[in-house]
Automatic annotation (TrEMBL):
Family: Belongs to the HrcA family.
Keywords in alphabetical order: Repressor, Stress response, Transcription, Transcription regulation
Record carries keyword Transcription regulation: yes
SUPFAM superfamilies: GAF domain-like (SSF55781), Winged helix' DNA-binding domain (SSF46785)
Superkingdom of this protein's organism: Bacteria
Pfam families the record matches: HrcA
HAMAP family: HrcA (MF_00081)
UniProt domain Heat-inducible transcription repressor HrcA C-terminal: residue ranges: 118-339
Keyword Transcription regulation applies: yes
Gene behind this protein: hrcA
Descriptive protein name: Heat-inducible transcription repressor HrcA
Its job: Negative regulator of class I heat shock genes (grpE-dnaK-dnaJ and groELS operons). Prevents heat-shock induction of these operons.
Signal peptide positions on this chain: none
Entry-linked InterPro entries: GAF-like_dom_sf, HrcA, HrcA_C, WH-like_DNA-bd_sf, WH_DNA-bd_sf, WHTH_transcript_rep_HrcA_IDD
Amino acid sequence: MPETRTSADLLSEMNDRSREVFRRVVESYLGSGVPVGSRNLTRDMSEKVSAATVRNVMQDLEYLGLLDSPHVSAGRVPTNLGLRLFVDSLLEVAPLDNADRAKLDSTLGSNERDVSSLLDAVGGALSGVTHGASLVLSPKHEAALRHIEFVSLAPERALVVLVFVDGHVENRVFTPPRGLTPSALREAANYLNSMVEGASVTELLARFRREISRNRREIDVLAASLVEQGLAVWENEGEPQERLIVRGRANLLDEGAGTEDIDRIRTLFDDLERKRDIAEFLELTEQGEGVRIFIGAENRLFSLTGSSLVVSPYMNAERKIIGAVGVIGPTRLNYGRIVPIVDYTAQLVGRILSDRQAE
């Protein structure tokens, strides 16, 4: 089963009956944690079908990679791919329970003035309400930077160490571009450190975007006449991997025409590619979205434990993402209940920190 299949692709291959069987298997498993058999499903189906029919549907779902059999005679359980399909397409998120809301409100309504103490309270509240392990990332530091270091942890995981001029040190884990080597990370860090000059991460990213734009304009100006004369041609024009191909380079050099321009263009392309890579590193360490669910191997920090992570960023008064809260648990999480809890907690923390910022 190709791993590139999206949830939409898989869903399109399922009819109403197979979708219902799949949904009921997942919901039953998430509730009980035990494999689900065809006979039990037959009693709950919306249409009257035999256990043999349900069994055939479950076999088809297993062929699609959505279900698995722990043992030959056992029922089915959803695979990580199946859980991803369920979360993306079939999950029904319940409204936040009033009792859960009250527990979160009472805990976060303490008079703790220290941000660290407040975030400890958040972690305790999340853990208590969800009966899972909580994850709390403290507000991002926006002071001027002194030093940046990238550390390769695994082929698909890297750590950025940010050292600020006020002595604060912050570590952030991110997923680097595919195929990136540790030596490329070191080169990027060296290049960044030569340009830090007291800028924050956000300011540094803005600086790189401006330089990329300047490089792009300079390349266009230098190359325009060569292209117009038919001495050069763009390959993949407008794409990130575009390059200028010089035609009849030997003749061009013999005539002594534009050799300095060609060398300058080559240098600019190299510089542009490096700046694009570094800008991508910075964007990866800065980016954040709404509530996100990482299942099994998608969650590279905890993939060895067969766990899931439900996480949401929180924002300050300027609507900038400054931290995140989340819940870590087994893949058999009650996602429909956990998602609104994490979402509400993130909003609550952001609101409290924004209010304190305004005081």
